[in-house]
Design goal:
189 residues, mainly alpha, 53% helix
Length: 189
């Protein structure tokens, strides 16, 4: 039985927009109906709540971001060690289109006073050095391809291989209205 946050949460809208792009609207709506039919409870809480619900047995599976699990895995708190021992990670679609990843972006405002420095800052954020900080400090998967990280939680999750999906952000964005309408039709709260 599934636990998840609200269907209209931006992370879920992104995921469901990508699924719609892969499957088409009709099949994506059927997939969403299946999720609703297999919920252990009404959508609520955040990622850590979902992980704890799986560890307690309330849910059999949860849709979450891995950095929340990595935080639990890297924690020294005894209660977190128990949670980490009771859950595992499944990256879907590794044999097909790959696993959906969060979409993050940056932009410079049209009326920015210091455009050149803003661009330099964004370039820094996308650099191997900054991406290593994100991976090792915040448990985020690096955006720089093939960047080696020394985060034991991230390494433990993949076993050395991971295939991410490559849907363009424009396709995911173009599906948002359709996705929200599908969520309403299938009763995904």
């Amino acid at each position: 039985m599934l636990c998840t946050r609200s269907g209209s949460h931006p992370y879920n809208l992104s995921l469901f927009g990508a699924v719609t792009e892969h499957l088409g609207e009709a099949k994506a709506e059927e997939w969403l109906k299946g999720l609703v039919a297999n919920m252990a409870r009404s959508p609520k809480g955040g990622d850590t709540d979902q992980i704890k619900a799986v560890a307690s047995g309330e849910c059999g599976i949860a849709l979450t971001n891995t950095y929340y699990l990595a935080r639990i895995m890297r924690s020294s708190a005894p209660e977190d060690k128990v949670i980490a021992d009771r859950v595992g990670v499944v990256f879907p679609n590794q044999d097909s289109w790959g696993t959906h990843v969060n979409i993050a972006g940056a932009a410079v405002a049209k009326n920015a006073k210091n455009t050149a420095n803003a661009v330099k800052f964004m370039e820094y954020l996308a650099s191997p050095t900054a991406q290593e900080y994100f991976a090792n400090g915040n448990n985020e998967w690096p955006a720089v391809p093939n960047l080696k990280v020394s985060n034991p939680a991230l390494q433990a999750m993949t076993g050395g291989s991971f295939k991410s999906e490559t849907i363009p952000i424009s396709a995911v964005g173009n599906n948002q209205l359709k996705v929200q309408q599908m969520l309403d039709r299938v009763g995904y709260k």
